[in-house]
């Protein structure tokens, strides 16, 4: 929760500098933060949101816009910063100097911030395709970083504090403008109302978070996501060449893991620019495989014209639902997800959230 306008700002960095002796400095900051001193950890596995059919209800929950970008953990230490993907890859150089300079200018000595890196489209909504195009062109000036959680601050691990307290502290750090770093605002209105407005404004959906809980890595059921449309990541297991060009793809053959078994989920043949179709052709030709990577045998129709590849690339796909035989309907390619390993891609099914009925099937 952001500090009310006009309220005096207490900067932890300034408090620490006023304390000459290390012992009272630790005691003072610990009391102010409500957290015990701890060494700065390395990469922290991110908290992940579970897909549900409807937003949760009640005062326990707050709701944020679901951004369509790369999850990024910003690790600030003594004037330098590392920007890590959700899998722990160091992409600091890839994201350019502007973001790093803004983060190192924050009033902290050490911090770990959780957020999302995005690029916005002409409507002002985050857009994954726009982000990929900006990174490919080296146009990092278009990037924005929406910070939504604070995990570590000046010698103190904050993960055991409730979300409400962590967001108070994060709001303190971001009171002064530090473009392209922005505070991800939350809404305390009813979740279904927030979701309806988010969908009207062409956002991907919302994330609902429990105010009273600590930060928990993985899917702990205290962060929930509700989407405006069906969109998931799938593994690229093959492709069909374009009929108009010998050096471009016409469609991708997709799958998702069920345990260690790769399950066929259909094809996607729209959403590609000519440049993207050629780029995918080059990437996939380098990964050609002699046999199908799927656990089960495909039908004659599903195998027709397919060149199989090693299941290493992950594509984000928007679609309208599932057919009766378990295949994607009206699928459209959104981009490659180079921040997510293929082995973690599974079919997401909306689960029962708080005060919600059980949801069965895939839709």
UniProtKB/TrEMBL annotation:
Enzyme Commission number(s) of this protein: 6.5.1.1
Domain ATP-dependent DNA ligase family profile residues, every copy: 136-269
Region called Disordered, residue ranges: 344-363
PROSITE patterns registered for this protein in UniProt: DNA_LIGASE_A3
SUPFAM superfamilies xref list: DNA ligase/mRNA capping enzyme, catalytic domain (SSF56091), Nucleic acid-binding proteins (SSF50249)
Superkingdom of source: Bacteria
Descriptive protein name: DNA ligase (ATP)
